[in-house]
Amino acid sequence: MHADALVVGAGIAGLTTAARLLRLGLRVDVVDRADAVQAAGAGIMLHPNALAHLDHLGPGLYRAGHPIARQVTTDPDGTAAVLDWAAVWGGDRLPLAIRRRTLSDLMLDHLPPDTVRWSTEPTALTPAADHVDVAFADGGTGRYGVVLGADGINSWTRQYVDPEAAPHYLGHLYWRTTVRGAPPFDFDDWRIWRSGGHFFGGMPIGGGRYHVFLQAGLADLRRVAPERAYREMAAIAAGMGPAVHGLVRSLDPLDTYNVRPAQGLSVGRWAAGRVALVGDAAHSFSPATTQGGAMAIEDTSVLADELARHGVGPRALAAYQERRRPRVRDFARLARLHGVLSSAVQANLTPGRPAGDGTPQGSAAWFRRLYRPLMEAA
Ligand SMILES: Cc1cc2nc3c(=O)[nH]c(=O)nc-3n(C[C@H](O)[C@H](O)[C@H](O)COP(=O)(O)OP(=O)(O)OC[C@H]3O[C@@H](n4cnc5c(N)ncnc54)[C@H](O)[C@@H]3O)c2cc1C
Q1: Which range, of 45-59, 184-198, 204-218, 347-361, averages the lowest pLDDT?
Q2: What is the pLDDT of residue 352?
C-alpha cells in the first residue's frame, strides 16, 4: 500500500483532512492539480463551529486573524441593524476573519513537508475489495486504503460517488479583494451596505488588511473577465447610493478582484466503497451564510472520528456519510432561510436609527436560532 489515504485537493478541506488523519497516525498523500496553494477570494470568516476543529493550528491562527464582534447592516436611508455575534454564539466565542492566503499558509506549515504533491491529479480510480488503485496524470500509480475527494465544487472524484450531482447557480455573483486598513476602511466590525438586491461590505482580516466584497443579485449568471471586474463592480455599486459608490471609488485593491458565482450543491451519496467526498465536493451553500468552509472543516473532524473507530475502509466512510448527510441537509435548509432572516433583521429596526447604537435583541435571537445548532458536536 502506498499510503492509507489519498486526499485529492489541497484546499481547506484537503489540508484539514490531512492534518486530522496524520494525527491518527495514518499515512496520507495529498495531490493537487494546481502548482501551489490556491487561496483566491481575499478573506474568509471562520465561525466558532469551524474554529472548534482547528486547534492543531495553535494560537497563531488567532494572532493572524481578526475577531468580529458585530455586524452592521445599513440601508440607503441610513437605517442600520447591529448583529452581536457574541450573543449569537454564546460565551466568549466570536467568529474570526482571516486572509485566505494566511489561513492556507498556516494549514500547510502545520503539515510535514512534502505531504502535498502539487501539479498532480488522478486520472482513474480502480476500487478493489481491500484497496483503491490510482493512476495519475504524470504516469505514476499508487495503491491506497481510501481515496478522499476534497477537490472542490467541480470535483473530479465525485463521478465515482454520485455522478448525478451537479452544482447550480444561486442567483448572485461575488467580487472580492483585499485593501490596506486605511480610511474609509478602518472600522472594527463587519459592515454591510445593501440596496436593490445587492450587498457591499468589508471587514478587518488581520495583518492590517480588509476583506472587501460585493454580492450582486443577478438573475443570469454573468461571466466577468478579470480586466472588466472593477468596471462592472463599480457600475453596480453606483446604483447602490452615494455611500457605497464612494467606498468603491476609494478602493485601492491589494489583490486582483476574484469573481465567483454563488453555487448550490448537495450530493445524495457521500461515499461509495472506499471513496468519499469532503467539503465543497459534497456540498455548497450561499456564501452569504459564511459557512461553506466551516462545514468542510466539520466534515474532516467526523471523517477522522469514523476512521479511528472503524479503521481505514468502507465501514468508516459509510458511518461518515450517515453522520454528515442529515447535518448538512439541515444546514442547507437553514441556508435557504438565511436570506429571509437577514431581511427580518432590518424589519426589527426603527427607521432612522443610526448604526452602532445598540443591539436589537430580536435580530440576535433570530440568528442564534440559525447558528447555535452548529455548535453541537459535528
Ligand atoms: C464568495 C464566497 C465567500 C465565502 N465565504 C466564506 C466564509 O466567509 N466562511 C466560510 O466558512 N466559507 C466561505 N465560503 C465557502 C468556502 O470558500 C468553501 O466552502 C471552501 O473554500 C471549500 O474548500 P474545499 O477545500 O472543499 O474546496 P476548494 O477550496 O475549492 O479546494 C479544492 C482544491 O482541489 C484542487 N483540485 C480540484 N480538482 C482537482 C483534481 N481533479 N485533482 C487534484 N486537485 C484538484 C483545487 O486546485 C483546490 O486546491 C465562501 C465561498 C465563496 C464563493
Answers
A1: 347-361
A2: 40
Ligand 1 atom 4, closest CA: 287
With a CB cutoff of 8 Å and minimum separation 6, the contacts of 326 are none
Grid cell, residue 11, equals: 484546499
CATH number at residue 37: 3.50.50.60
Count other Cβ atoms within 10 Å, centred on residue 279: 29
| pLDDT tens figures, 134-150 | 999 999 999 999 999 99
- Structural domains in the chain (count): 1
Whether 278 is in a domain gets the answer yes
For ligand 1, atom 38: residue with the closest CA: 151
Pocket lined around ligand 1, Cβ cut-off 6 Å: 8-14, 31-34, 38, 41, 44-45, 50, 121, 150-152, 156, 174, 176, 260, 279-280, 287, 290-294, 296
Atom of ligand 1 at shortest distance to CA of 44? 8
Structural domain contains residue 79: no
Give the pLDDT confidence of 188-222 residue by residue, as tens digits. 999 999 998 899 999 999 999 999 999 999 988 88
Using the atom order of ligand 1, give the atom closest to the CA of residue 97.
8
Look-up: residue for cell 465561525? 47
Judge whether 162 lies within some domain. Answer: yes
Residue 245 belongs to a domain: no
The range of the structural domain enclosing residue 108 comes to 3-67+92-167+264-339+363-375
The residue among 177, 369, 149 whose CA lies nearest residue 265 is 149
Within 8 A by CB and 6+ apart from 150, the residues are: 7, 8, 9, 10, 11, 13, 14, 17, 277, 278, 279, 281, 296
Peptide bond into 122 cis (omega under 30): no
User: Is residue 134 within 8 Å of 3, Cβ to Cβ?
Assistant: no
pTM: 0.93
How far out from the chain centre does Cα 279 lie?
A: 9
